[in-house]
Write a structure and sequence with these properties.
The chain has 11 helices and 13 strands. Helix 6 links the parallel strand 5 and strand 6. By secondary structure, the chain is of the alpha/beta class. The strands form 4 sheets. Strands 3-2-1-4-5-6-11 form a 7-stranded parallel β-sheet, sandwiched between helices. A two-stranded parallel ribbon has the order 7-10. It has a two-stranded parallel ribbon with strand order 8-13.
Length: about 325
């Protein structure tokens, strides 16, 4: 199969690309290497693929660029992971998130439709659940209110995916990722930032009282879910949670990192941040049933694996 992975130089994207290359597929990558975090990290991710994946460097906001890549590539499937990430930055610059996550996604959907690409996977987010009252979150929950521009753009992009499936018969699967971590994790994310600060003896910022809970999901489990979604033969449009099915408080997370590093954290307390969700918790029953999704790595096992990787890069 010929697969295009957008955002393929990033944390999740490079792991996904590596998996499908190992499985014998022909993989191409789109990435703009923007400066949201150090582009050298993303270039190193691509280099680690050993030249096995074709690279198209450009911005998904550029409709002509997207059209050119997709018409040239003759792909069988698109795995769309490229996005402006981060809840807090989206509050400061919502227009950038709208342009990238909504317009960029539409550019890809439109080009995929015109080129007759039959499969489209979209990386959504647990943030679309906002202040959902039913826990754990199921895919059929009503979603009346998101809490950040980032979440709103992900939900809007899901709606566009549904439009293209309904209007044009494109097979589209939206995957709601729950706080992905593991080797290669972006340096702006909490686990990476906390590990780095504790290792260097620097204070870590704790927003709120430490009681917020997240469903932390190990990268290998996410990749397994993506592979299952690519094989999915159900309805033309569908949505699946990909989480670990276990929640961890912020305070518990810090303790796990301390244990793995053998060092105590210096905690700098701050008020809760605008846009942050107090809880994410995935019901993965549907993904288990239809994608064969079976997450294996709990937080107590995943954090030492991440710390081992982190220390190997020092």
């Amino acid at each position: 199969m010929k697969i295009l992975v957008t955002g393929g130089a990033g944390f999740i994207g490079s792991h996904v690309a590596a998996r499908f290359l190992r499985d014998g597929h022909e993989v191409s990558i789109v990435d703009d290497f923007n400066d949201y975090y150090d582009p050298r990290i993303k270039r190193a991710n691509v280099a680690a693929l050993g030249g096995a994946a074709r690279l198209f460097e450009g911005d998904i906001r550029d409709r002509d660029f997207v059209e050119g890549v997709i018409s040239e590539g003759a792909f069988d499937a698109i795995i769309h992971l490229a996005a402006r990430a981060g809840v807090r930055p989206s509050v400061k610059n919502p227009q950038l998130y709208i342009d990238t996550n909504i317009t960029g996604t539409h550019n890809l959907l439109a080009a995929a439709h015109r080129s007759g690409i039959g499969r489209f996977l979209f990386a959504s987010s647990s943030s679309v659940y906002g202040l959902a009252k039913t826990v754990p979150f199921t895919e059929d929950l009503p979603l009346p209110q998101t809490l950040s521009p980032y979440a709103a753009t992900k939900l809007a992009a899901e709606q566009l995916c549904g439009n293209y499936a309904h209007l044009y018969g494109m097979r589209v699967v939206c995957l709601r990722f729950f706080t992905v971590y593991g080797p290669g994790q972006r340096p702006d994310l909490a686990i990476h930032k906390f590990t780095d600060s504790i290792h260097r003896g620097q204070p870590i910022p704790q927003y709120g009282d430490g009681s917020t809970r997240r469903d932390y999901t190990y990268i290998d489990d996410i990749v397994q879910g993506v592979a299952g979604a690519l094989r999915y033969e159900g309805p033309a449009f569908d949505i699946f949670n990909l989480g670990e099915n276990q929640t961890t408080t912020l305070s518990e997370l810090i303790i796990e990192i301390e244990k793995a590093l053998g060092k105590k954290a210096i905690i700098e307390r701050h008020p809760e941040q605008q846009g942050d969700m107090p809880l994410t918790a995935a019901d993965i029953t549907k993904a288990r049933q239809f994608l064969g999704y079976n997450p294996q790595t709990k937080i107590r096992e995943g954090i030492p694996k991440f710390v081992e990787w982190y220390l190997s890069t020092r």
